[in-house]
Amino acid sequence: MSEAIEVINAYNEQIYQIYLEQDIKCLSDDGYQFQGENVIAINNPAVVAASKAGLIDYLNSVCDTLNIEQELKNPNTNQFELFTATADIKYRLGTLYLYQPYITILANSYGYLHGEKHFHYSQTREDARFNRELPIAFEGLYKFWQRLGDYLSNFFPELILEKKAMLYFHAPFSHIHSMYPQLEKSKNFKWLKDFAENQYPGFNKHRKFFVHYTGYDTHYFSRFLEANRGDEAAIAKLDQERIDWLPYLKEQLNYCNEGYLKLMYFLNEITINPNQDGTFDYQLLAAED
Length: 289
Description:
The chain has about 290 residues and is mostly helical. It has helices spanning about 5-20, 30, 45-50, 55-65, 75-100, 125-155, 155-160, 170-180, 185-210, 215-225, 230-270, and strands at about 35, 35-40, 110-115, 115-120, 270-275, 280-285. The chain has one domain. It is built from 11 helices and 6 strands. It has a two-stranded antiparallel sheet with strand order 1-2. It has a two-stranded antiparallel ribbon with strand order 3-4. Strands 5-6 form a two-stranded antiparallel sheet. α6 (about 125-155) runs parallel beside α11 (about 230-270), α9 (about 185-210) packs across α11 (about 230-270) and α10 runs antiparallel to α11 (about 230-270). It is elongated, with a radius of gyration of 23 Å. The N and C termini lie far apart (about 60 Å).
């Protein structure tokens, strides 16, 4: 065995141990079993029903009209994109847990000059990698929810046509609210819509800042410089922030796993029937109070 492979194996063993210790789960774990559900087969009823109603054929025609590769708007392709997205988030989270014990604790990094306490930030390699991995984890979360929106939009091809495939996560929820309010009675849909309105904006605000404005490493260092005037409360706040990111991201991964099930449950509880004018009628199998 080469030295490089030995290093890779040792690294992976550390990551796997962290997964166990922190109970970090993704959709592809345990043979694609999550909360007692086979997450691969769970979409079969909805896809079969949509196909029988002619919806998949219409989806393919929309893809042809917009010159989109049909694979990109295929429910089964989108499904596996959701699996790989949660696996990627899990890996990023494991990596962050690996580096966190070795990051610089600003409260412990100080000296005195002319009798005044001054903090300093001597960044280690592990500290830098923690800061630079963090935005990538947020990008993984963003990818998951974008793909979940894509999956849902596959069942409403008229939305894809209307938006010319330029869809964002909120689009199918707004579309259903406007066009098919009867579907909003679903508890599963309510969970997804509540997440889109109340949870998603918070994490996406961080993601957009890291991606479109300043990376986390630069942002963290600049705030340290602003605080470095003996402001111990500001320094403690910066230290606590990097402790808090991991449970926050773990919670967000759990939202992803749960959101996947809610989406599949929702799609499995609706009926789709073609109308004579080429449109489709959507109803819940059993209206919920």
